[in-house]
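User: For my dataset I need records formatted as: sequence, then structure tokens, nothing else. Please produce one.
Assistant:
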Amino acid sequence: MASNYNDDEPVTVESGDLGSGKIAVEIFNKADAALEKTDYRLVVELMGSGTGDQRCGVDIVAVLDVSYSMWGKRLEKLKTSMNFLVKKLSPIDRLSVITFSWKAVRLCPLIAMHKNGQAKIEMLINKLEVDSYTNITRGLTEALSVLTQRRQQEGRTSAIMLMADGELTDGFDHPSTVDVSGVPVYTFGLSRDHDSQLLQDIASRSDKGTYSIADVKGSSLNIAFSSCLAGLLSVVVQDLELTITQNESEIQEVHAGSYNQARVNDSVTISFGDLYNREKRSTTVFLSLPPVEERMAMDILKLAFSYRPSGGGALIKSAPITATMTRTSSPVTVDPVEVSSEIARGDIAAAMQMARNQADANDFNGAKKTLENVRKSLDNVNRVADTLIKTLKYEVQEFSRLLMDPKCYLREGRAFALSSELSHNLQRFAARGDASQLFALAIPLVALFANQAIEFEQSTSIKISNKMVRTLTNYDDEPVPVPSAPPKGVGLGQGKIVQNIFNKADASLEKTDYRLVVELMVLDKEEQRCGVDIVVVLDLGGFIHGKKLKKLKTWTNFFVKKLSPIDRLSIVTSHSQRMREGCAH
């Protein structure tokens, strides 16, 4: 870890509408219930809203995989996506870039994204080259150092965006040793070879980060990056908490995804943290209503919430809000569509997790049956909730498709399920599968940024270099003297050709097919030859280590010992130093 990263560029925050974020609250519940003891459920929905164009600045640390497997198109996609991200940031935002392979390198401190800052970052991005091995732990540790040691922290949103395309190389510390609980880490898996469980684990252990899949049909790294950025640039409230207190009822369960719940006496408090503009948090409350003897109105719950407007400021507390309904001998109302669709969403998330566990245990038939049963349950949900139901049906259908073949599940299905589970637990959009089918959980700005990212990717004229080996201006070959007359015992130029023809001795009189073989053999009685110049190209990338590297060294040493003084050898390697090694014999 770096000893001192307090070199972040200061940003001047102008006065304006900062801190204008607000919360809108709605309660969805049946208007009546029976007189006898009965189960009852309702949904509390909180939505963030901003009343101005101003926002707090965001500090982003991009942690980028430049291991050997990123060579070629993957590195090109990464550069394009990062250049789009840079262009969407404003002078109040700051960006630091860290690359990791066998080690982590901080390319720059947190730089304000004015024109000069953007130009500097773009130059660094376009010069990226691949290296060896995959050490995610080093990259995460460096990123945490940048954020925890920055001088300017108050009133700013911060995040780590971690992109990786492969599995962790053996021998390095595991990322689980890094405590990321104090900052959101948004992870992005590029390629079908990435470790989906590892990236989902990092995101879920962080402060409400998501895990996106970046290179499947209907999505891309650019869409994944831009969707994440859309949220980070629209945070309107922070430290959001909702407290639910029972009143003439008994709270049985509270479903709010993976958000932390604290129960004290008759109250449950859920900590949601940051909320984007137009982003929603739904909490499903399951109650038990006591029996009553006659028709009456009841106050069944009291609600209160608190938050801080983005950019800092004092804690704002809401006035108490009461949820009411009527007890009657002949109830006629049914659950509102918001309640039934929210419960369906929770059922889908649980079913996908169960199906993933079954598939991990090689019970693919059981996994398919689990998904088929939950898919049928969606037909009973009120069609008014069309957008959400379409998203849920797509997720079930897509996961079912990826379960058809065990190999397909390992390549794509497991990652899809893990991304969906965390997305539903947080009620926050994460790119996976066809992005156009998943916008039910996305804020409006996500769709806008995604479309802009696609246009940028199609029209970009960024020239990207993928050079693996550093070009040297001087490739000096060692001269080998050739004698004008062969020394004693040397018969250079005395090679001869021996010819043999193999064929049948006769054939019939009529027209007929015939075949023979001509064999040429080189013969040199004194076994002399001319010198040979050989260039050996050795891959020393991230997958060449341990026994593979040992075998490569053994083979190369044997090869060298078989050459003679009249031969010359040059060795070119592609590894972390990108250098050409030359030698002659």
